[in-house]
Predict the 3D structure of the following.
Amino acid sequence: MDVDLLRPGMIPIAPNTKLWFEFLIEPSLLEEHLNKDHPDPSAAELLIKFLYSSMERPKDLPLIDIDDLMDNSRIDKKIEYRKRKKYECLKMLAMKIVSFWEWDLNILETRVPISLQIIFVQDLLELVSCGLNLIDFETHNSIENLSALKDEQVFAVALFHRWTLTVIINYTLSKKSSFSLGPIQDGNEDVLLKLEMQSEHSEQMLLRLLDLKRSSYTIPTINTFDPPDELRPLNCYWFKGLTVSSAEFRSQIMYDYAKYKFFKAQYEEAGIYFNMCKELNMNLTPSSFHKIKLEELNGFCAACSSKITENSSLLMQFLYSTQTNHNEILRILEIDNQIMEIPMFLRDSLELDLASMLSLGKFTASRDMLLHIHTLNAIRRASVTSGEIVLLPPEDYVTKIKFNLRGPEIFLKDLKLCMKIKDKKFRKNIKMFVCNVLLKCPKNLVKDILKDGHEEIHELFGDEDIHQLLTLPEDIPTVNIDMSKRLNRLKITQINNVNVQKLLLKNKISIEYDPSNLRNLLQQLHKMDMDPLFSILDINYEWQVPLPLQSLLIGLPNGLFKYLVIILIAKSKEMIKLNDFERAKLLLRESETETKINNSIMYSKIRQLISWEGLYTEMLQFQHEFKNFAIGDLVERCKQCLEFVQSDNLIPRQEIAEQCILTLLNVGEWEYLTKRHYNCFKLPLAIAYTCLDVNKFKGTKKSAKEVWDLILPVFDYGYSATNKRPLDGDPQCTQNRVLSQSDMMHVFLSLRDQNAIQIVLSLLAKIQNFLRDESAMELIMPFLNIWPVIPNGMNIPLRNITEVLGIVLTESLKYHPNHIILLKLKGDLQYVMGHYSSAMKWYLEAIVIVSDYFARPVLKPMIEDYVYKRMMKCCMQMQNFTQAAILCLFQEEIDYATAYKCASETNSCDALDEYYDYIWDINLLEFLIYWHTKLNHQEHRQKLLKTIGALELNANNNEEIKREAANIRKLKFLRALSQQYVHP
């Protein structure tokens, strides 16, 4: 049950909660209640209740509506019964609350409905009238001598007209949601219209009030209003009010008047009064009545000003300069480098915009201006850089210095300007910035910058530091260091030339891929490096050499052969990661050639292992470039490699052997694989056996138990560790245990043969269908009938199966993008997941392939009725009901019930009558004509009559003409759908 704390008789109520009528009985409690930290009910709730209750209709008087509130001809009727003591007391309590808010109009307008605001301001005008008809606000301008009015009357008149203008602004800018209170409806739009009609009178009245010559004004406070009781009448003690200066009173009027002019886009006049208000506030000691925010006032003044001076904020000067031909922009940026007021993103935008305009010829400036801006921005950016930075700065800035004849001069000139700042942190960051630039610049440019006479450089670096910077070599690697901790000991020690040369040689080896150049570099390094503990792999810790090769090569003595072969193999692995297989094979061939210098057993083993690495690279290339790769003798080499797997001598790596099996599986060598038995590669062999069986029995025999038994435990989370024993009793082979999901995914994602892919996808689809157990949401695939049922007690999460199926399907479509079955399965998967727009995309892509992009009719055996049915349901879910109605016609047996239901939907989100030209079924056309006639939709009806009158749709035509007309419209409709879903 809803509890209204302002209504008596509702429960439960907190012990400290006051009921509104308690303040009516004892008005002195109100001030005590309002001064609480969190009064319950709040001041706004009480005010609304007081005002609403003061408008309650006695049984013997008529109802008051919203029109009465703004119609002066009905004022007498309105106040007829509100002079009774109860209502007078409620009005006085309302006055106390607003005076407690210190007459803040923003609080009043944001917390009280506008209809009750009108009641309040009219009550205030009535309260101060004293014989004058102030409640009739249209007669305010007829008052000839405003100076004859009392302070409370001037205050009430000013408050009313200020409220009129501010309420127009606030309720126009923020459409506050209206709410009703009893019989009084908050009709904001009607009230605003009437207020705007009298806004000119309010403007004139405020201007007249500004001309009053008084030294001070008295503003009512909470103690001013004394509610009546049984013994005494209503009374107001105006002398108990707050005395404010004339400047404070006038500035508040100016501010509200100027805001209204600003709202009306009369910026020149608004600026005059904003500036006058600003001048009054300069020497003003504001009281609680003063509600002007100086920051907001300054913003208004700046917005209205058409002139920017040096006294304006730097940000304003910057924005003005960017809009007026970039005058004095360098001066502004120089000052900002010291005070840092302009946001960095604005400075970066300036740099990019100016470079663009100069390149396009839209702006002309001195050739050095852009470099000045680059330098000033770089200094500003460096001044706020954190301690952890990259040693070398981006090359683009140094490049700009190099290609400008006055680059060093401009760099030093702008640097000199920022050296006036004595902040230690700032100078440390600048020192870091200069060091970065000098380390990146060429030697001759460094000498130009560091030559004698540049005091700003000597302020940052001592003579010894400058000498060391001049002697640094040009090729210094880019490394991440904490410069803030190292700058304090920047003294650059003498560098050993031999170590530098070694470092440079190692760096060149890291980036060199030409075998002959690598040989020369290694020869030089071998001559210089006599350390017996040196390992060539230490040059780059990312280099990898297969473990069997590494164990053989490491045993060889250090020398050119060992270094060269290790680097060639490591770099080939690097190229494989980049899918640059040709260069990887070239490097391996070179390394294999190197081993031919010696015919010993050790070198023969190394050569054989390198040969298998070359085969492995070629198999990966075949897998990556499927359909574009010339197989050649790859199959025979795979078979030869597999002959060594179970030998007692040298054997290939497990990854190579498994890749051989996968390659043979992908080229259709299933019979060869089923005649071999490799304990460690059961999954690809089981897939090969299933492919062979499916092709032999055409999918009519349930013969896929091997793959089923291998895959199910992978997804079974309830399969305990105690059950994970070897599948064939061989404890030596780790892959004989239950497969991990990563091993399974590696095999699945390596499949390229269409038959193998369909086998795997049908297995995953079968599991998903079983777990979902909804006939309307089944995935449709060939070979679903070959799989056994899932045994009881298995805990397989549906989400895991769906994710794996989606990943495998996406990878398969990369290599078979035109495979109809895969495209339809992708659509089915999106459909059951509720991604209806995506499902439409994949179904339509399948139709595009079948119809040769709508050049010929769609064949039924390729696109079955269930596809159209699911497309129809997708459209209905997306509220594209016209599309769904037409798709009903594509089925073998037309579903007229659904078609008529969809055609009669009035909230369809598709193109509606734009699709009527695609309809070929007379029954649907006649229903649509009937429906639009019933709804009196004449335009739709005329279009349908024109469509049904087409000659090719005549009922007397022969079947061939009807079939041709239907096919043409079907293809046009499908083409329109593809433009929406496939190629939006």
